[in-house]
Amino acid sequence: MFWSEHPVEAQCLIMEAFHEVGKNAGEVDEMKVWLLKHKQTNHWATTKATAEAVYTLLQTGSGNKWLSEDKPVQVAFPQIKKKKAVAARLAAAQKSAEPGTGYYKLRWEGKDIQTEMATVSLTNPNSSIAWGGLYWQYFEQLDQIKTFEETPLTLKKQWFKEVLTDKGPVLQEVDDAHPLKPGDKLVVRLELRVDRQMEYVHLKDMRGSGLELINPLSGYKWKSGLGFYESPGDVATNFFIDFLPRGTYVFEYPVRVNHRGDFSNGITTIQCMYAPEFSSHSAGGRVKVE
After folding, report:
1. 3-state secondary structure 209-275
2. 20 contacts: CB under 8 Å, gap ≥ 6
3. 105 close to 62: Cβ distance less than 8 angstroms
């Protein structure tokens, strides 16, 4: 394959062609946004791809404006009461922004956080795109955590009890009608949905203390068109995924019920290590063994 036939290089050549024939600059800008969004979760594999992408971003469309426009994004909390104090902190942080990129960071501690801060208004005064993130961190019991689905990554966790029948082993979903007992074999099923291509993804599934792994060996696996490295541990099982195409994937592994009791089974978390802002988690739960 020639270098110009690789995905990033091909996209750049198309953008240059649109720019040269005098197409609408807005269309080229939309292509540039796609290129940047692709870079957000995927790496540019070669030096040729990086050089070609940077050149195209600067020389096509309204590329010059993207560098010259440096007005800060207007951030506001319309529902809070002490607006002046918050606005002053925002203005001070924006004045100390990093030259060129405009990056700045502002942090509120627990005593300064108001409930009304959950509503945020953002206004971009520039014609170019802007990047940012808002994180709300707090502590919660693992079994009280609810699933988080407002993200490109969506996780669903289920437990199934393997029951031997005349027709062979059958998976039976764990619920109050089918209680667990020591010695039962469970199959942990993780359903992952992703709406875009990502690279370098880490999936971590926590496990209750009353459960023991049946297969404690780590190794690389290939299932349903997806390659990943599975690394079992004492507290959780980790899955390391180099390349995650868009789609739906199911991970399964068996465990054995060892003890009676009521155990917190933790949560399952996933994060794109190349773009940490893309993360998600499943709901917490408990495992009851009679």
Report:
1. CCEEECCCCCEEEEECCEEEEEEECCCEEEEEEEEECCEEEEEEEEEEECCCEEEECCCEEEEECCC
2. none
3. no
- 75/92 Cα distance (integer angstroms): 13
The pLDDT tens digits for 231-286 are 999 899 999 999 999 999 999 999 999 888 888 888 999 999 988 888 999 888 88
The answer as to CATH 2.60.40.690 being correct for domain 144-289 is yes
3-state SS assignment for residue 152: coil
Cα 245 to Cα 197: distance, rounded to the nearest angstrom? 4
pLDDT-derived band at 23 (thresholds 50, 70, 90) equals low
C-beta separation of 160 from 106 below 8 A: no
* pLDDT of 272: 92
C-alpha to C-alpha distance for 120 and 79, rounded to whole angstroms: 9
Phi/psi at 279 (nearest 5 deg)?
Answer: -145, 165
Domain boundaries, the chain: 3-67, 69-123, 144-289
- Residue 237, burial from CB neighbour count under 10 angstroms (0-12, 13-18, 19+): buried
Give the pLDDT confidence score for residue 253 in this predicted structure: 93
Computed on alpha carbons and rounded to an integer, the radius of gyration of the chain in Å comes to 24
Q: Which residue has the tokens 């649109």?
A: 18
63 band by pLDDT with thresholds 50, 70 and 90:
low
Which range, 26-35, 60-69, 191-200, has the best average confidence (pLDDT)? 191-200
**Of all residues in the chain, what percent are helix, strand and coil, respectively (each to 5)?**
25, 35, 40
